[in-house]
Amino acid sequence: MAAPTNTSTFSKLSGAFAICGLAWAGLQSYIVHSFGFPWFVSLADGLVSTILLAAACWLINNNLRYYQPGKGSYINILIWCVALAAACTAGSRYILPFLDNTEAYVTLMSQSIVIRFFTSFLAVGWMAMISMIWYTQQDQKENERRKTEAERLAREAELYNLRQQLQPHFLFNSLNSINALIGFKPDQARKMIHQLSDFLRGTLRKDDQQQVTLSEELQHLNLYLEIEKVRFGHRLKTEISCDVNCSECVMPAMLLQPLVENAIKFGLYDTTEEVVVSIRAELDGNYLELIVQNPFDPKTSRPRQGTGFGLSGVQRRLYLLFARNDLMETHANDNIFTTIIKIPQL
Amino acid sequence: MTRALLIDDEPLARMVVQEYLQSFSQIEVLQECGDGFEGLKAIQQHKPDLIFLDVQMPKINGFEMLELVDNDDAPAVIFTTAFDEYAIKAFEAHAVDYLLKPFSKERFTKAVEKYLAQAAMAPAAPKPTGNLLETASHSPQQHERIVVKTGTKVKIIPVADVLYLQADDDYVSVFTPEGSFLKNKTMSFFEQTLDPRHFVRVHRSYILSVQEITRIDPYEKDSHLAILKSGAKIPVSKTGYAKLKQVLGI
Q: For residues A43 and A27, what is the distance between their CA atoms, to the nearest angstrom?
């Protein structure tokens, strides 16, 4: 239920509690003394009452630490407070006359019994209220922490999944190409195995939160493009242009590759001619802009259909990483489909 | 002699099949095709016995290509693809085989031998492609576009361009702003594959796109008439009207 309070807070609170108790005892002794009793009696009265009261406060506090009353059961707390206050008062009433059994003191005791009860009740009630607020707050903090933690885990899992979904078909088709090359061009087969290994290793090594520079990302992208060109070299051409000032820009790892993968698939499967996929990087104010273009056939496909998994995955990742939905846009002009993503530079 | 075609958009993938086929002297590869259009043309021209067919190809996929093949020309089909999500089990019953890339020579040999055994057993038996298509038609792009043949040309109609469909003997007429096209499918096939939020079968012989409706008028007893943006008037049966009301939320 309640969060374990850390030790420094706990000792601070205990200290404050002790000081309150001493002040309370002092005040009560002073009041008794002002009625003309000797200091010994007054101090004994103050100390005994205060120790009893402190015990009651400790009891109610401890009780509330492990049991938070529901909405309807505040009456239970009230009953507890009354009972504890009554016990304190009764304790003082029966213990103190042993120390001073003069008639004057016993009279004072019986006359002040009601006010003793009410002050005890107020003190215990106040303690109960403070405890309740304090422990509820602790609970809330704990819940909040757990919630953020759960959200963080869900987000990580989602990011992980988004990345994983991009692989299998590419992998199987590449293996099939290697299978073909082994037969008549073993050297090329070997080269492609190395490229594929490098690409996969790069993919595995990167975690999603990681930032890489644009030049690193382009290097990784090149491995991917080399492999795709072995498969589709007869139809696929790529153009990469990158402004000099943005090669050191940072971006989330593995963001450009799915974008290009989408453009290649869209281009290759939507037309039968040669396909040129162009990739351009520019710096626009505080944003790194990546522009990917591919041809498509406006007569047979609605641009929306071409977005497929790749783009929605990229958009979702951008949202999870930057909490913004406006970082990706797509345009379809004539027979060119353009995807633009903007990556904020800090 | 078995006459075969290879239809795959990756040259290297075709090369694997060529290489594996070298141990079958009784199979002659007539042509290699890089997409569904070429494949269709080659099938019409050569009328092969067997085709090796990839699924994911430019413009029209392997299933869509098969839909356009005349039943008389229909060859036996061995699918070769990296995608295993097209309900392999269902296909296996009808296609000769379904090879997942990359496949081994042993696996490939098994598939070809299966074909050869089938061909030897029942040379005159009806070819399986027709059956295959009936059960296998839920290919990936099926709910996004309809592929039809007009004369010798292939036309791809995005589903968003479809105004309505009308039953026409054994065919279905697909009405678009550019005119109507015949497709050798049944009404219930379209009722199942098209998105039910956008297409409603309002009558035994009609399926219409709800976005095209401008007005619904009462017409005779129990029936209605839907007026489309294009001006076409489509009869709506009693049960069709109930379905339409549900989709439109009225």
A: 10
